[in-house]
UniProtKB/TrEMBL annotation:
InterPro entries (alphabetical): Kinase-like_dom_sf
The protein's name in its UniProt record: Protein kinase domain-containing protein
Lineage top rank: taxon: Eukaryota
Region (Disordered): 25-75
Comp. bias intervals (Acidic residues): 42-65
Amino acid sequence: MASPHSHPDLLDPLQTRLLATTALANTETDSDPLREVIYDSPDSDSGGEDDDGAGSDSTLDDPEELGISGFGHPLQRMPRVMSADHGLDYDSDSELNLLLSSMSRVSSNPSRSQSVSSLNTDDTIDFEELIDALSREPSPFVDNDPYELVSLGSVAGDMGLRTEGSWRSLMVRRLERSSQELFLLLGLNMPELREDPWNPAPHIVRAIEKDGQVYLFLQRLSNYNKPPLLNVAHYIDFFRQVLEGLSFLHEQRIAGLNLTEPSSYMVDLSSAPHKSNSSSDPQHVVYFDRLSYPVRYYLVDFTDAKRIPLGSSFPSSSPATPSETLQQSIPACPFRRDVQDCGTLFEKLLSDVPALLPKFKSLTRAMIHGSFTADDARRLFEALFRALDANIFETRALSSSVLTNNS
């Protein structure tokens, strides 16, 4: 059978993007990815305030320059609307009330980056009825995950709700009005931040307060690896979006994230219908083509996250040779701790794609050592990615081989 590489018209959008980007990189010579990243890092505390930086921070090479279009996420990044030094900080009842009231406006004007199927889901939903049902005993939150994230469709029967309605596609979080996590999630859903495609915070459809607690209704998400990541291209896309999201949060001075646990990440797969192969087989596998449709990953665990005060050390680019003082301060820096945790996650996941393990070893080593900021890691990732051979992207992950053998 002819290889799809011999028929460009058969390539899906993500494959086209990967091949074109790699081909472009292969035309460059005498390029050292690690040297390129370390010596081309942005100035400290720049936060992307200059116009040139906004263009250089695009997620992908310009599709017009590459002669391709139609690829999915991650998207080219919009120019930053504020630097990290201007991160929002809410600490009073009046500011929280303002955020809560703004959520009704946000839900009526959903983000352009939100998937089509999740738009305008709240037009016919009686949220007060849902909250009354959620408030009754037994509480659906008690026995669920530690983040108190509940899928309404899965608990409809227990809550005595009707079996049909667009509300079944929503998830709900219940947070104390005074919680720092609530402030962060509401702030990250303000329109100017919500529109940024690097923002990894889940999209809030509606936020309603009752009896000192706030119910956050979110678009439906799935576990990041259900259905599984099948090949190198899938893992590359996941790693890239995680690093973009971490860079964004650190720009907003948000740190203290739980990044080592895969359960902290979820994915929006609503851009295309789910299909199944051999549906009559009890061991059939739910299938979603991540190469043909946009896939967006979100960070859902902000339980211990905090906005770091301006007086604290800010994640600037790493110097070529860290000083002894910097080395001693690394363990106490929450930004660098996040990068270390992220590196630990990547190192664990790379064991499932051995073809990538040696190629990204320099990345995970630098992240875990604590000498890189999130943006340093993102830049090195992009440099290493551009150096990959085009044939590697279709290499199957070990978990997908086990899955195929068992199906």
